[in-house]
Structure to design on (605 residues):
């Protein structure tokens, strides 16, 4: 696995005496979907924050496509090709889908009006439509405002927004992408994840939703009390062992090994 | 699982229109103010006859709406960025006093105007720079209101600065029968509307107001836009103060708090939610016209003037109520509509 897109090496995060993460290593290959599982307080969110640049690790190093990186902010992570889809989505409700997808990189008109900062609305819509089409999703007209969308559609818009900012072979981090969704909407998001992975995007999903983890991930990583207690191909995992890793029933076994 | 399934399960079909009742409600929400205005004009045309439905009254209503509207425009931009700027009356008083003092001292008119407007921008800048440090903007702007009121009284030595006839061209002067403040207000509203709707900076300003977290996460420098919102509000307040000074040829150094309340009334009547991120400036202009129509109409109908503020208060709550009702009903309808659409997709 020397061609790992994103590599964490011996990452620890200490808050004073509290140890949120202890020597966690993780490799994500191109187009690979990794499910990051663990009970509340196991360190999933902290690890996600380290990966997304929101939090600096106390020790350890990270490599993106073989290059060592140090993230001071989520912007640094984004520059390195790592985007995060937050659980709260953080969309601008009052704006339409196109505006939400283009926010921060709005196309301007050509010529003098563009120099004055005038937006090219048509280009914005076309570009957004193209981005949604590339992901194989059609949610609603791109000029529909986000507040009029269903939960699943919003999730799709949030994922598309992050995905559209990724470079070739980028990394997408997702925090509980299906937490607030019903069955059908969850399927929609699962399909979207598969599509993205098939296009070469590496994806790390933090979730409590085991069926989601089993249905989309290639590899399952389990954290328990800040340590990585399992890292296996999802195809080789069965539900019972994953649950016991999460609850910590087998931690002693691993430690004894 | 193919792409086609995704589309059919989830889509409310591309290009499909919103349900009819939703569109109806949105129409009520968006055009209710216009309907209210028309009703008011008709009522007062009879009740306030023979003086109300005349060109002279119309022009005077427009004129007072224009001055209130300039303030309201600034307050609106503040509200859209998620801030209620209460320092507006203080800024207006200080800008008027500084412009007045400069003119009295023999400074050229453009210089005096520029100085007054620059003060508005500086006040906004200071407000903004304090607020982004995490201070509650409401308290910051109240403090600013108090400080600026005191400062302008100090500068003016507690006296009104009168006889400022140099500013007549933007005060009492009429062009084609319409007073100068109306042109200024129209210009301000047009410029700000274009700015918010069609420029990148305007769009980001609205995004910061409506979804600060969203804006921050896509890499927008949120604080820069918050400060900009304060500066636009300060600029409009200063402009309003200068136009008022020009209109009454006197700079009044005491901050009149009523300004910000009539501006807020216009903003609320226009259905601009105070949580930020949305709202229509042209409708705020109409809101200002409605407020001044009510006071002029009641005056001409020989109703004691105190009633006009009572009526305005009642309208305000009524407007908010209507707004809440349409919003709630719309989302309820949309939710049930969404479920039906999904069900149809599943069946097909």
């Amino acid at each position: 696995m020397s061609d790992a897109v994103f590599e964490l090496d011996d990452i620890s995060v200490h808050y004073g005496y509290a140890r949120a993460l202890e020597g966690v290593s993780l490799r994500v290959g191109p187009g690979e979907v990794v499910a990051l599982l663990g009970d509340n307080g196991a360190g999933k969110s902290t690890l996600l924050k380290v990966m997304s640049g929101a939090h600096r690790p106390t020790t350890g190093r990270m490599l993106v496509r073989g290059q060592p990186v140090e993230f001071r902010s989520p912007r640094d992570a984004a520059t390195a090709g790592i985007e995060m889809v937050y659980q709260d989505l953080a969309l601008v409700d009052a704006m339409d889908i196109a505006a939400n997808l283009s926010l921060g990189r709005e196309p301007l008109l050509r010529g003098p009006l563009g120099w004055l900062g005038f937006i090219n609305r048509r280009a914005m819509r076309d570009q957004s439509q193209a981005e949604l089409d590339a992901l194989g999703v059609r949610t609603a007209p791109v000029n529909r405002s986000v507040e009029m969308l269903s939960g699943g559609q919003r999730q799709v818009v949030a994922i598309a927004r992050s995905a559209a900012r990724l470079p070739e072979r980028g990394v997408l981090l997702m925090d509980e992408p299906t937490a607030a969704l019903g069955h059908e909407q969850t399927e929609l998001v699962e399909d979207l994840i598969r599509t993205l992975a098939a296009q070469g995007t590496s994806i790390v999903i933090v979730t409590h939703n085991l069926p989601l983890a089993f249905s989309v991930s290639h590899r399952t990583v389990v954290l328990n009390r800040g340590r990585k207690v399992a890292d296996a191909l999802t195809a080789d995992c069965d539900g019972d062992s994953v649950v016991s890793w999460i609850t910590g029933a087998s931690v002693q076994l691993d430690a004894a090994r | 699982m193919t792409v086609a399934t995704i589309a059919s399960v989830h889509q409310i079909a591309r290009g499909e229109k919103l349900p009819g009742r939703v569109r109806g409600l949105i129409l009520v929400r968006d055009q209710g103010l216009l309907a209210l205005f028309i009703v008011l004009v008709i009522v007062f045309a009879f009740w306030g006859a023979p003086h109300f439905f005349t060109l002279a009254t119309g022009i005077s209503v427009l004129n007072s709406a224009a001055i209130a509207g300039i303030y309201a425009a600034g307050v609106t931009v503040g509200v859209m960025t998620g801030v209620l700027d209460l320092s507006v009356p203080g800024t207006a008083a200080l800008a008027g006093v500084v412009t007045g003092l400069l003119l009295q001292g023999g400074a050229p008119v453009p210089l005096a105007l520029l100085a007054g407007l620059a003060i508005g921008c500086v006040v906004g800048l200071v407000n903004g720079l304090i607020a982004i440090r995490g201070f509650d903007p409401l308290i910051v702007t109240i403090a600013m209101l108090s400080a600026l009121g005191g400062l302008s009284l100090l500068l003016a030595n507690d006296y009104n600065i009168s006889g400022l006839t140099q500013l007549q061209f933007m005060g009492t002067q009429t062009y084609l029968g319409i007073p100068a403040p109306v042109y200024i207000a129209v210009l301000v509203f047009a410029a700000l509307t274009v700015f918010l709707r069609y420029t990148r900076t305007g769009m980001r300003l609205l995004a910061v107001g409506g979804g600060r977290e969203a804006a921050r996460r896509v890499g927008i420098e949120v604080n820069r836009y918050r400060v900009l919102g304060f500066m636009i509000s300060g600029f409009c307040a200063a402009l309003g103060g200068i136009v008022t000074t020009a209109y009454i040829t006197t700079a009044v150094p005491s901050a009149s708090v009523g300004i910000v309340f009539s501006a807020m009334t216009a903003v609320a009547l226009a259905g601009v939610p105070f949580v930020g991120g949305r709202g229509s400036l042209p409708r705020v202009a109409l809101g200002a016209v409605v407020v001044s129509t009510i006071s002029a109409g009641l005056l001409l109908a020989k109703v004691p003037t105190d009633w006009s503020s009572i009526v305005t208060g009642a309208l305000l709550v009524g407007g908010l109520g209507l707004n809440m009702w349409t919003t709630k009903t719309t989302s309820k309808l949309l939710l049930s509509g969404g479920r039906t659409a999904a069900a149809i997709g599943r069946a097909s």
Chain A touches chain B through 47 residues (CB under 8 Å). The CA atoms of residues 111 and 126 of chain A lie 19 Å apart. The first strand of chain A starts at residue 6 and ends at 15.
